[in-house]
Amino acid sequence: MQIILLGPPGAGKGTQAAVLSATLKIPHISTGDIFRAHIKGGTNLGVLAKRYIDSGKLVPDDVTTDIVASRLNEEDCASGFIMDGFPRTIPQARMFDEMLERLGKKVEVVINITVEDSIIVKRLSGRRMCSCGRTYHIDNNPPKTEGVCDVCNRSLYIRDDDKEETIKERLKIYHKQTSPLVDYYQGKGLTMNFDGSKPIEVTTREILDSLKKTD
Ligand code: AP5
C-alpha cells in the first residue's frame, strides 16, 4: 500500500507512522529523518539542509525529490511505503506522481491529521527524540525513565527546530505551502481526515479502521 501522511508540524505524523509501519509491515520514510541523518553525518547535503531546517524553511524541491527518488528504489519499498513529510509542496506532489508513474505505482491513500496551531506549539516544546527514531513527549508520551529511550537506552534530545520561534515559522510555511495539498489529494478522492488532538492510541485505531475499509 502506498500511503502519504499529511499534517502540520507536530500533528503526530511520525508517531502514527511508526505504529502503521510496524502493523502494515511497510517502511516509514521520513524526509525530515533523512535530512537529520545527513546533518549528523556532516555530509554536503546535511550542511545544505541544516541552513533551511534550523530557520523553519523548506529544503528546495529538487533536492528533496532526488532523495525520495533514490529511497524509493530500495528493495523494501516494493510492497509499499508510508511517506511522512513528503510531498510538502504542490510541485513536489506533481513530481512524486510522475516518479510513481514511472515505477508503475500510485498514491493510494492520504492520511491527513489535523491539529490546531495552539496545541502544536505546546506539543513540540515537550517533544523528546531518540536517534533510533522513537519520539516521546514529556507529558503525553513519556519514556519509562526520564530522558532515556525505552527501546535502545540512548539519551533523548530536543530537536534544534523545536524552538518556539522556529515552530511558528514552520507553521506559517505549512499553511502557505503544504496545506494546499489537502485539496490536491481531495480532488483525486484520496484524502482521509483524522482529528490528531485525540489521544495517540485513539487516532491510531481510527486510522487503522479506515484503512481496513479501503481493502
Ligand atoms: P519533519 O521532520 O518532517 O518535521 P515536521 O513535518 O515539521 O513534523 P514533525 O516531525 O515536527 O511532527 P510530526 O507530525 O511527525 O509529530 P510527532 O509524531 O513527532 O521536517 C523537518 C524539516 O525538514 C522541515 O521543517 C523542512 O525544513 C525539512 N523537510 C522535511 N521534509 C521536507 C520536504 N518534503 N520538503 C522540503 N523540506 C523538508 O509528534 C509531535 C509531539 O507530539 C511528540 O512529542 C509526540 O509524542 C506528541 N504527540 C503525537 N501525537 C499526539 C497526540 N495525539 N496527543 C498528544 N501528543 C501527541
Largest beta-sheet characterization = 5 strands, parallel
Question: Which bin fits the share of residues in helices?
Answer: 40-55%
Structural class: alpha/beta
- Number of beta strands: 7
Domain module tally: 1
Q: What are the segments in which pLDDT stays under 50 over at least 5 consecutive residues?
A: none
Arithmetic mean of pLDDT: 95
Give the cofactors and ligands. BIS(adenosine)-5'-pentaphosphate
Order of helices and strands: EHEHHHEHEHEEHHEH
CATH class: Alpha Beta
3D shape: globular
At the fourth level of CATH, the homologous superfamily is P-loop containing nucleotide triphosphate hydrolases
Alpha plus pi helix count = 9
Q: Biggest sheet: strands side by side, in what order?
A: 2-3-1-4-7
